Amino acid sequence: MSLKEVYITRTAAFLPNNPVSNDEMEGYLGLINDRASKSRRIVLRNNGIKNRYYAIQKDGTATHTNAEMVSLAIRKLFEKNPTELKSVDLISCGTSSPDQMMPSHGVMVHGWLPESGNIEVVSPSGVCCSGMHAMKYAFMSIKSGMSTKAISSGSERLSRVLSADKFELEIQKLNELEENPYLSFDKDFLRWMLSDGAAVFMLEDKKSTDGPSLRIDWVEGISFANEIESCMYMAAEKMSDGTLKSYMDYEPQEMIEKSILSIKQDVKLLDEHIVKLGFNKLKTKFEENNLTNNDVTWFLPHMSSYFFEDKIYAQLADNGMEIPKDRWFSNLATHGNVGAGSIYLMVDELFNSGKLKVGDTILLAVPESSRFSYVFAYLTVC
């Protein structure tokens, strides 16, 4: 069986409501203990984010579900020919914030598309890498000839779990945040970083006839969970031995008192591992494919914060893979951290920017701190 080439032929995105500026955030997320956050200014200075999007109104009422946002992005793929949706034979959806535990996120997206056919739907779980896993599944399905037209997505809707009533009173001292920015990477830090939204790719076994396409040359994923304990987690509590205690093992009152459903992060592990592990693996992948930094026209790194930009740059340089900053592309400042959707939103903006030329290459890098997973992909404009 001969393997087919796989192309991203179209991209689309859906961002809910109007952008929310830094000064407007607490109007949506609320005040903890009726007091403005002392850490917000410091965290925002470090992460460099200026705007983000929330699928909620100021009173906390939801305006969109996660699945609905993905479906609206999918519909944008077919604005010129809505009936073409019927020809899709696979939908692969990644997110870390499904609207419910069951049914799966993917089938809920499919449920918003009643005019589509009875097709295969998959829902890779995880955090930031889940969107890339969704893309890789679609990529492998088309490459093997099992599908001819597939949609993959990355999306998040976390604004409701960031609201003030979901968080404990801030206990970090302002001077601690000033002395060590990593101390801001805890529950409160995530409130000023995460954003809602969805974006999608159309993957096909033939190039587009209407414009450029992105050939997916390879996708590489790796996990270090066999070596390192959990770093970011939700619906669990971290024990002294590094294991996680599930929300299912807590009494209802304990879940409230310990804010078990809040997102938490082990900042010491983040500092030690998040950049080094994945980009060392990337060096190996480049060596296997006889690639150098000169073979990268555009570098799209998923970053939760611009705090990591110079650290990634330094690690690449240490590995002999220095990529000049003028070849980097990010929309973190304008879109916020949309987790599994961030890399999709970056590709979508670059793809539709008019900046790409035939022969350009694009390196995608998505780190995930939950238990240190990484996915990299290499694309060629054609």
Quick overview of this protein structure:
GO terms for molecular function: acyltransferase activity. The chain contains 13 helices and 15 strands.
Sheet/helix structural class? alpha+beta
CATH class of the largest domain: Alpha Beta
- The fraction of residues in strands falls at 15-25%
- The helix content is 25-40%
The CATH superfamily of the largest domain is identified as: Thiolase/Chalcone synthase
Shape: globular
Q: Give the second-level CATH assignment, the architecture of the largest domain.
A: 3-Layer(aba) Sandwich
GO molecular function, one term: acyltransferase activity
InterPro entries: ACP_syn_III_C, Thiolase-like
Domain Beta-ketoacyl-[acyl-carrier-protein] synthase III C-terminal: 287-365
Pfam family, one: ACP_syn_III_C
Plain-language structure description:
The strands form 4 sheets. Strands 5-4-6-7-1-8-15-14-13 form a 9-stranded mixed sheet, sandwiched between helices. A two-stranded antiparallel ribbon has the order 2-3. The protein has a two-stranded antiparallel sheet with strand order 9-12. The radius of gyration is 20 Å and the shape is globular. The chain contains 13 helices and 15 strands. The protein has helices at residues 25-29, 40-47, 66-77, 105-111, 130-143, 174-179, 187-191, 252-257, 267-273, 276-288, 309-318, 332-335, 342-351; strands at residues 7-14, 20-21, 51-52, 90-95, 120-122, 149-156, 197-204, 214-223, 232-233, 236-238, 244-246, 264-265, 298-301, 361-368, 373-381. Helix content is 28%, strand content 20%. It is α+β, with helices and mostly antiparallel strands and 382 residues long. The protein has 3 domains: 7-204, Peroxisomal Thiolase, Chain A, domain 1; 215-223 and 270-381, Thiolase/Chalcone synthase (Peroxisomal Thiolase, Chain A, domain 1, 3-Layer(aba) Sandwich), CATH 3.40.47.10; 232-265, no CATH class. Helix 3 crosses helix 4 (105-111). The longest helix is centred in the middle third of the chain and has 14 residues, at 130-143. This is 3-Oxoacyl-(Acyl-carrier-protein (ACP)) synthase III domain-containing protein. Keywords: Acyltransferase, Transferase. One of its GO terms (molecular function) is acyltransferase activity. Pfam families: ACP_syn_III_C. Residues 287-365 form the Beta-ketoacyl-[acyl-carrier-protein] synthase III C-terminal domain.
